[in-house]
Task: inverse folding
């Protein structure tokens, strides 16, 4: 009985709010004038990669999902690719513009 008193349940971590993920991906695709299927495709043209980078940045910022999970959402991309996209999203003027527009459309808080 004494040991049972010492055992504690592990802390329950709050789940990530992933309800915003689909709207972010859809709005980034619409801003890039492409479909969601195009956005998550393996195509690497700037027309598709910039909205994809913006989606990765916004998903990470507003959900805190792991890079691996974001990669799975965006076409099974490697976590290092997502990390690079997020870093580029912080400094690329075109990606920043997409992030700003999508944030305004979805009423997301800006940093």
Result:
């Amino acid at each position: 009985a004494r040991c049972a008193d010492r055992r504690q349940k592990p802390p329950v971590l709050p789940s990530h709010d992933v309800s915003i993920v689909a709207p972010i991906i859809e709005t980034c695709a619409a801003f890039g004038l492409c479909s969601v299927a195009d956005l998550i495709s393996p195509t690497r043209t700037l027309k598709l990669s910039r909205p994809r980078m913006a989606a990765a940045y916004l998903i990470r910022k507003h959900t805190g999902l792991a890079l691996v999970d974001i990669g799975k959402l965006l076409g099974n991309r490697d976590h290092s690719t997502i990390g690079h996209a997020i870093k580029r999203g912080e400094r690329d003027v075109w990606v920043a513009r997409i992030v700003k527009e999508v944030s305004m459309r979805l009423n997301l808080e800006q940093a």
Summary: Residues 8-14 have pLDDT under 50 and may be disordered. The radius of gyration is 17 Å. Helices lie at 2-6, 21-31, 36-39, 46-63, 67-73, 79-91, 93-105.
